[in-house]
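Review form for a predicted model. The reviewer records the input and the model, then writes brief findings.
Reviewer: anonymous (R2)
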Amino acid sequence: MRFSILAATLGYGLSMTAVGGTPADPVMRPPVEQLPPPLLHAKEDLHALVARRDMDALLARVRPETKLDFGGGEGPDGFQSAWNSDQESRQRLWSTLEGILALPGVARDFDHGAEYCAPYVFLHRLAR
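Model under review:
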């Protein structure tokens, strides 16, 4: 009961911050996800892959330049050691991906093509 009251109070406070007379924090008010058809299709495929827990299909999509963390981990080998070393790490992977895919992302166009970043908070500039 205490948790539900705390959650309701926190939710009310956050919603008032977002809609009240003060500037809303972009992290608390997620963007509406507007993806071009190819990115939308790719995200739908990733949702299905995660739902199936298809590690082989996921590994096939990890490219050498895929960044895995802020410490230099990248590519298929880095992915294997971080997320596919044992059952516990694989379960964390699926839970993490489900959480990320539940949030909207942001698509941007670059000279080299389109890029999709999820969750969206990694592309927002925070007020200082």
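Findings: The chain has two domains: 1-30, 31-123.
Further findings: The helical segments are 2-19, 37-52, 55-61, 75-83, 87-102.
Recommendation: see findings above.
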